[in-house]
Amino acid sequence: MNSISTTGTASSFLLTFSSTSSSSSSSNFSKSQIYPSSSSSSRFTCRNQLNPREDLPFILHDTLQTSGIDITHAKDAREGFCSQIKRLSKIERQVSIAINASADLAKTALLIAAEDDALVSHSSVPLPVKSFLERLDTLSMGFVSHYSLNLRSASPELFLDGLEKYLYGYKGFRRAPATDLPESRDLYLHSVLTHRSGSAVMLSLIYSEILKMLRMWGLLNYDVEIYCPRDEVHFPKGYLKQKSKLSDQPYILTQQSLLVEILRSLKEVFWPFRYDPGRSLFLRAACAAKCISGPNTAEETAFERASTKAAQHRLERGVWTSVRLGDMRRALAASERLILLDHDVDELRDYSILLYHCGFYKESWHYLSLYKNSTISSLKPNRYSSKLEQMEADAVEELKTRLNLILMEDNCTKPSDFRNSLESHSEPW
């Protein structure tokens, strides 16, 4: 059976966590069930039957706490995030970000940043979410004082043109430079407010928050949509909702799509496996775990192997932001929040393979089983719309087979060579 253990090892650049908390969480996993929504095969709701108010257990916070790392601020930020997204009704999730909803989108984005900041900085003070919300209010008030015309009497076109000149001209907000992998600071709201450079999604969020504030002050009495460009050049712009066209729909962010895009961007930036950008994140991780075989599998070059060893050496010294290995903590955090957002069942699969690379085989198996159970009725056996989907399905089967073999062995729920990179208190830069 030793050969099974060797096969089951995630890869030569395995990131490991202390799994002393896995025994306590695994009992909760067995009590969790998934209830597919009848409206969509990709929708799902996960709840713990022992405690209906408790979502599926995640490993990140408990593992860090077990390792002796203070997670107070990270935990508070996560709880705040959950509180905000629970306020969004099914209808509100599908409305434009320019419309006031029960959840505070700006605060939610800042809570995402606050958790990630706490995970990597180990700061004794939390990210000042309230201060950055006040900065947004100041930005809105600045537009009112800067605008020379009467806002109430200005036409919608003149009003919005003035707002864009104020935001992108006078205040100097700009699109982040187009790169294959964006800077992480361009994806966090507090950094964008500080450096005035960010992604189109973040600029759209700031634009919408100004509109919401102006509407609350009674200075905006018509509906506005925000056009979020998908290219790498143009800026988000507002226009009168009455002039919207069907072709505009893909460029209009909803409450849910905004949060999904924020989290998926962070997940991609911090995903620990960077090769083959044409493949999905899951396939990159599956390839690193040797869960893909056949003619489509690219051989790892000597340069890639050398990069892997160098990156692992840096991680062992507490440097987590390598070119090859990204940041496992923040990748896990983004995956957990996406599952909580209850948007796409594929997030269960992606989280599962991250857990596999971390050595949490029981938890990985449970999340993969939840994924399989939720998709069993959505796809016909052996019928996929693309080779990519076929490769993903094959990798899922290979991963599940390997996990089953690993879990059949005694004392093989964690790697024998167990180095906990999360125990390091070194700064990540």
Automatic annotation (TrEMBL):
Stretches with biased composition (Low complexity): 19-42
Ranges of residues in domain Protein SirB1 N-terminal: 133-214
Pfam families according to UniProt: Transglut_core2
Superkingdom field: Eukaryota
Region entry Disordered, spans: 19-43
Cross-referenced InterPro entries: SirB1_N
PANTHER family: PROTEIN SIRB1 N-TERMINAL DOMAIN-CONTAINING PROTEIN, SI:DKEY-261L7.2
Name of protein: Protein SirB1 N-terminal domain-containing protein
Organism: Aquilegia coerulea
